[in-house]
Amino acid sequence: DAMVIQNPRYQVTQFGKPVTLSCSQTLNHNVMYWYQQKSSQAPKLLFHYYDKDFNNEADTPDNFQSRRPNTSFCFLDIRSPGLGDAAMYLCATSRDGTGNEQFFGPGTRLTVL
Amino acid sequence: GENVEQHPSTLSVQEGDSAVIKCTYSDSASNYFPWYKQELGKRPQLIIDIRSNVGEKKDQRIAVTLNKTAKHFSLHITETQPEDSAVYFCAAKSGGSNYKLTFGKGTLLTVNP
After folding, report:
1. Tens digit of pLDDT for each residue in A1-58?
2. How confident is residue A100, by pLDDT bands cut at 50, 70 and 90?
3. Minimal-distance CA residue of chain B relative to A31
4. Which residue in A38, A47, A66, A79 has the most C-beta neighbors within 10 A?
């Protein structure tokens, strides 16, 4: 089945230790998004790619970076995780630039010790 | 930018009753309004969406209405069932952005058997 896959599902890291989260999609969608969702809050957009065109949200901390080496894969790098970065990280895709239906992956739960 | 307000934050109903969740948005150019259901620890899943050229859309027990003049839209669930229990998020796609969805803060719906 076509889908959005995230690995790992659970990630534990130490304060300040870099971590990379992975997202892949078989939908062949042009747009990929990374959201941060903290407990009992709405998903918050960090950035998105339209093809290889990277778009950062103004309030996304510099600590968060992203890479999209090809259509199928997108990575979220957290360079120096702090305790406040503990959250669920959701990857999503949409077919094109009209920004319509977004398909979400299952998320990666990040714990920072 | 777009701002989406969602009410109520929690809603408890008896099985078989109807549930209504309301959202308002600030950008009159917004043109796409999806509703997502998120069960505990799972991905947000699109349950219904509406575009700005339509006033109402129904899908079995779920309906969404849109009032562009008042800039509000609502989710209606009829004949609620315990499996409808989840957090529901409304969102709006700003007319100024092809990609970004702005989410409401969510409504925790509990359907009591």
Report:
1. 569 999 999 999 999 999 999 999 999 999 999 999 998 889 999 999 999 999 998 8
2. confident
3. B99
4. A66
Helix, strand, coil percentages in chain B from 3-state DSSP, rounded to 5: 5, 55, 40
A97 Cα to chain B: minimum distance (Å): 5
Minimal Cβ distance to A41: which of B43, B101, B105: B105
Question: How many angstroms separate the CA of residue B112 from the nearest CA in chain A?
Answer: 21
Long-range contacts of A78-83 (CB under 8 A, 24+ apart): A78/A13, A78/A18, A78/A19, A78/A20, A78/A21, A78/A110, A79/A18, A80/A16, A80/A17, A80/A18, A81/A13, A81/A14, A81/A15, A81/A16, A81/A17, A81/A18, A81/A19, A81/A110, A81/A112, A82/A15, A82/A16, A82/A112, A83/A15, A83/A112
Q: Which residues from A are below 8 Å from B44, CB to CB? A: 43, 90, 104
Interval A82-92: pLDDT, tens: 999 999 999 99
Which pLDDT band, with edges at 50, 70 and 90, does B2 fall under?
confident
**Number of CB pairs, chain A paired with chain B, less than 8 A apart:** 54
Best of B35, B98, B100, B105 to disrupt the A interface (most A CBs within 10 Å) is B98
Is residue A65 helix, strand or coil?
strand
